Each structure stands twice: as C-alpha cells, then as structure tokens.
C-alpha cells in the first residue's frame, strides 16, 4: 500500500497524542517501501515516571518561564524524543526510510537520523532549523500541512 504523505503525517499527529509530556506532544511515523515500520512519541523509558506525573507532583505551570526551564532540564535527562523512540523500536533498519514527525527534529535527532541513513524527513511545525543540516547531508526535507490538529 502506498500512503500519501498527508496520511502519514496525520498518523504522526495521532501518535503524538500518546505522549505524556506537558509541554510538547510529538509523534513520529517511519515508512519504508510503502510499509509503516515504526512509530514513536516523546516520553520517558518504559516503566519510568512520565512527564505529566513529575510535573503534577512538582506543581509546574508551563505558562511560567521558571517552570518551563525546570521542565526542560528534567526532560533533557529523562525523556526520549519521538524520532529516536521510533528508530529504537523499529523491527528493521530505518536506512532508506521516510520519517514523518509532527515537529522538525532537534539538532541531536537530526544528527541521529542522518547517521541512521533515512531518505527523507517531513514535518508540520518548523522549529529548530535542523532541516538545513539534514539537507546538507543528503536527506530530503519537506514541510507539510495536515487536516488533523496537533494537541
């Protein structure tokens, strides 16, 4: 079955809704040769406390910059990004695969996706500017609109 890019991105939006992060819910779908080979969302390793649980226990309010900073520091140590979650759980190589992720990969994920040999990365929301890095390294980068709303 050949999926349209918009359909794959809609799936990534749906996967993002499984994230327990209080700040960003990011979803990722990896497609290769017309098959979905992996999905992932940002979150903690299996069995660890989720971001929403930690945030509630600490009383973080994401409308306050000090609490957003605390969240970022906690997240940098404890959370796995959606792209890496999908790559790590893929049942086969992602080399040559097409990645659909709701938010442009951060610089760390972009480097890992390039190294993993993905063919293309498509995202809805441009954020980090990592598309330039990926393009320089032979990865096709696309922006896309979707009919589903992130959130």
TrEMBL record:
Organism from which the protein derives: Morganella psychrotolerans
Domain of life: Bacteria
Entry's family note: Belongs to the cytidine and deoxycytidylate deaminase family.
Keyword NAD: no
Keyword terms, alphabetized: Hydrolase, Metal-binding, Zinc
GO cellular component: cytoplasm
SUPFAM superfamilies on file: Cytidine deaminase-like
Cofactor(s), names only, from the UniProt record: Zn(2+)
Pfam families per the UniProt record, alphabetical: dCMP_cyt_deam_1
A GO molecular-function annotation: zinc ion binding
Active site per UniProt: 83
Entry keyword Hydrolase: yes
Domain annotation CMP/dCMP-type deaminase: ranges: 3-151
This protein's name: Deoxycytidylate deaminase
Biological process per Gene Ontology, one example term: pyrimidine nucleotide metabolic process
Annotated Zn(2+) binding sites: 81, 106, 109
PANTHER family (alphabetical): DEOXYCYTIDYLATE DEAMINASE, DEOXYCYTIDYLATE DEAMINASE-RELATED
